[in-house]
Every structure is written in structure tokens, then in C-alpha cells.
Amino acid sequence: MPAPRKYPNELRERAVRLVVEAREEDPSLSLNAAVLRVGPRVGVVPDTLRGWYKQADVDAGRRPGTTTDDGKKIKELQAEVRELKRANEILLAASSFFARELDPRLPW
Fold it and tell me: What pTM value is reported for the model?
């Protein structure tokens, strides 16, 4: 089970929206300057806010990368692969054990 998030999703969405609005109001404002301006106001570390903003861009298709949904699916599939490999090892060991039981002359 994943650890609980430090920041609620509502705060995350609001903070990203504020960065977007700040950049729309002042087009010359860089991403760094926007997160430095908005971060302290909402109580979020600027580096964290910058990551949220970039991930929101990926999720919206404005930036290449792995979306949040795809990342969750990948983690689930990796866990499933680990479990299947473990089950396969158990089945191989069991088949080898039972093969020896049936024919003790086999070299296994």
C-alpha cells in the first residue's frame, strides 16, 4: 500500500492552477519564477510544485513523458510480473521434486 500523500489532491490542483494563471498573466515569467512566487503562498516547496506542474503538462499531453495513469499501470504490471516469476519458480521446483519421486534414477 502506498504511503499517504503529504499534500491533498485539491491543494496540488490549486497550486498548479495558480502557476498556470501566473504565467498567463505575465508571459515573460519563467516556470522557475512562477513556482518561487506561488509555492510559499500555498505552503508548497517550489521544487515539489515544479514537479507537479511538469507532471500536469505530461498528463495533458503538452510534454512528452509517462502519464500518471500509465505510471500506475506500469507499476501494477511490474508487480504482476514479479508474482508470476515467483509462481513459475515454485512450479518448476515442485515439478522437479515430483519427477524425482516418480523416478529416483533421474539425475535431478
Answer: 0.69
